[in-house]
Backbone:
C-alpha cells in the first residue's frame, strides 16, 4: 500500500501513456485505411504503404517517451518491459504490479476513447480496432516474429541506456524500431510486442484466444535479451528502468544513474 500511496502518479501516467498511444494508432489507422477516408485510396497494400503508419507511430512513441509525463514514469507502456526491468532488479514488485495493471487499463481505455471519438469507424474491417492477429503465415511464424522483434527492442534499450553518451537517445532508437517493425514485420503478427496493447482491441474483436501469443512471445524475447545483456555486461551496467532518465525528475526505480542535487523525490 505504501507504493500505491507514493507512486500512484506514475501508475496513472503509464495508463495515460498507453491510452494516448492507442488513440494515436487508431486515429492514424482509420485515416490511412478506412474506405471513408480520402487517404485510403492513395495507400498501396505493400510495405511502402505501411511507411506512413510506421512513421506516425514511431513519432508517437518518441513524443510520449520524451514528454514530461514520459520522463516521470519511464514510458514503459508495456507490461513486458516492466516485468523485464523487474527481472533485472530495477523495479520493485509493488511497482511492477501497479504498472502492469495501469498499462492494461490504459490499453482498454484508449481503445474505447478512440472508438467513441471516431464515431465507431474503427469497427470497420479495414481498421478492425487495430487488433493484432497472426498473419497468413500462421501462429508459429507470428510467435517467432514477436519474440525476435521484442528481443531486438529490449536489447537496444539496454545497450543504449547503459552508456552516458547514448542514453539520451534510447527513446529515439526505440521509436525508430517501432516504425521499422510496422513497415516490415506487421504482416506476420500485427506488430504488438505488448500484451496490454493487444488486450484492448481483442476485447472488441473477440480475439482473446490469441492473447497467449502476445504475452508469451514478447516475454520470451525481452527476457532473453535481458539475460544476454547481463551475461555479457553484468547487472551493474543496467542503469535505470526509465527509457529516458532526466535529473530533476523524480525516479521511483532502483536507479543506477549518479544522483543529482536537483533531483526531486516528491
Residues:
Amino acid at each position: 500500500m505504501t507504493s500505491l500511496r507514493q507512486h500512484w502518479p506514475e501508475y496513472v501516467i503509464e495508463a495515460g501513456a498507453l491510452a494516448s498511444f492507442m488513440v494515436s494508432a487508431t486515429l492514424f489507422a482509420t485515416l490511412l485505411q478506412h474506405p471513408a477516408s480520402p487517404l485510403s485510396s492513395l495507400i498501396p497494400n505493400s510495405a511502402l504503404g505501411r511507411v506512413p503508419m510506421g512513421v506516425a507511430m514511431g513519432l508517437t512513441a518518441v513524443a510520449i517517451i520524451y514528454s514530461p509525463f514520459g520522463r516521470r514514469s519511464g514510458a514503459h507502456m508495456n507490461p513486458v518491459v516492466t516485468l523485464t526491468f523487474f527481472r533485472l532488479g530495477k523495479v520493485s514488485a509493488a511497482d511492477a504490479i501497479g504498472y502492469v495493471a495501469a498499462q492494461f487499463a490504459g490499453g482498454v481505455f484508449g481503445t474505447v476513447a478512440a472508438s467513441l471519438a471516431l464515431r465507431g469507424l474503427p469497427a470497420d474491417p479495414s481498421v478492425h480496432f487495430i487488433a493484432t492477429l497472426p498473419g497468413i503465415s500462421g501462429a508459429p511464424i507470428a510467435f517467432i516474429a514477436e519474440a525476435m522483434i521484442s528481443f531486438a527492442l529490449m536489447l537496444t534499450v539496454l545497450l543504449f541506456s547503459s552508456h552516458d553518451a547514448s542514453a539520451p537517445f534510447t527513446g529515439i532508437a526505440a521509436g525508430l524500431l517501432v516504425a521499422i517493425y510496422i513497415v516490415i514485420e506487421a504482416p506476420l503478427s500485427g506488430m504488438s510486442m505488448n500484451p496490454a496493447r493487444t488486450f484492448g482491441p481483442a476485447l472488441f474483436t473477440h480475439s482473446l484466444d490469441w492473447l497467449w501469443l502476445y504475452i508469451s512471445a514478447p516475454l520470451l524475447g525481452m527476457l532473453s535479451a535481458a539475460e544476454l545483456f547481463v551475461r555479457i555486461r553484468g547487472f551493474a551496467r543496467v542503469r535505470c528502468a526509465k527509457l529516458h532518465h532526466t535529473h530533476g525528475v523524480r525516479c521511483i526505480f532502483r536507479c543506477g544513474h549518479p544522483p543529482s542535487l536537483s533531483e526531486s523525490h516528491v
